[in-house]
Amino acid sequence: MSTLQAPKIRKLADATRVEFGPLAFYHPLIADGDTPVRTGIQTSAPGYLAPMHFHPYVELLFIIEGEAEVWLQGDEDKPARLGVGDCVALPANVPHSFRTVGDQPMRLLGIHANPDRVVTYLDRTSDASGYPVLDGKLEPVGACERA
Q1: Residue 14 DSSP SS3
Q2: CB-based burial label for 2 (10 Å; 0-12, 13-18, 19+)
């Protein structure tokens, strides 16, 4: 149950930047654990491929800029193509992935149906906040930057 008593406003320009490797980064927005959902904006360069992962809750991806392909484990040969304004709901506990398509960056709004980000990667570990641990170390969190 949410303890939210007043509107919560988070501005992208003020959000912390979390690196997801050399081709992507994430800005958590409504992400304090005191609402029933968690949101953030991910920006991914051409060539980005999300590692196969899953969440113990439904995740929605809403494409803001660019194009993406998304698929569930086992359906890699049947990706769904998403463009600006398209949204996909990914089932809980089912490994999935997505990639940037084309030569333009892709930006998406991720909506986690959970107050906290919980991610299980199939090929790497995540830290206590659900962010990927890359090359055996936590990725640095930079200053408030925006692509």
Answers
A1: helix
A2: exposed
Residue numbers of the domain that contains 39: 29-130
pLDDT in tens, the chain (147 residues): 567 788 999 999 999 999 988 999 999 999 988 899 999 999 999 999 999 999 999 999 999 999 999 999 999 999 999 999 999 999 999 999 999 999 999 999 999 999 988 988 887 777 766 776 766 544 433 322 323
In a domain, 85, yes or no: yes
- DSSP characters for 127-147? -TTSPBEETTEEPPEESS---
Distance CA 10, CA 79 (A): 32
Residue 101 in domain: yes
42 vs 127: CA distance, rounded Å? 18
Cβ neighbours for 36, distance < 8 A, ≥ 6 positions apart: 1, 2, 113, 114, 115
What pTM did the predictor assign?
0.84
Instruction: Specify if 3 maps to a domain.
Output: no
Say which CATH number the domain at 39 has: 2.60.120.10
Total domains in the fold of the chain: 1
